[in-house]
Amino acid sequence: MDTDRHGYDSEDGNTDLTSGNPHGATSATEVAVPLACVADREARHYIPPVPMPVFRRVCRLGSAGFVYLLVWRRARVERNPTVTVSTALLERCGFSRNVKWRALRKLEAVGLVRVTTRAGKNPLATVLDYPAAARAA
């Protein structure tokens, strides 16, 4: 197939300039570039206030305590004591799906959350000491 001096096919004109691929795909690898607006949004995320008696209990739970704080935050943001505990959310904070399940079992055993499992879906966690004031706020 003949190409002109710019790398286009002389017949249909849809050849990618960099690779000569007629479908426009390149062989270059994609690189994720963090956007300033995403970094700004992440910087504004915080853990809402937790009642001190609950915080004292959570401090003794190790990684399960950190998972609880993430569940608590999500419940406060959604203004609902029952939230989906996604693996993606926890992986962004360094927790694997196995840690997620161990933590949820531990949190349920100590009475901080009630976990509802769903086949093929992320579990639902209900924060049991979710204050009524937080629901209304």
Give a concise summary.
With 137 residues, this protein is α+β, with helices and mostly antiparallel strands. 41% of the residues lie in helices and 12% in strands. A hairpin with a 2-residue loop joins strand 2 and strand 3.
List its traits:
137 residues, alpha+beta, Arc Repressor Mutant, subunit A, 2 domains, three-stranded antiparallel sheet, 6 helices, 3 strands, globular
Walkthrough of the structure:
The protein is an alpha+beta fold. It is 41% helix and 12% strand. The protein folds into two domains: 31 residues, no CATH class; 94 residues, Orthogonal Bundle (Arc Repressor Mutant, subunit A). A three-stranded antiparallel sheet has the order 1-3-2, covered by helices on one side. The longest helix is centred in the middle third of the chain and has 16 residues. The protein starts with 35 loop residues before the first helix and ends with a helix. 16% of the residues are buried.
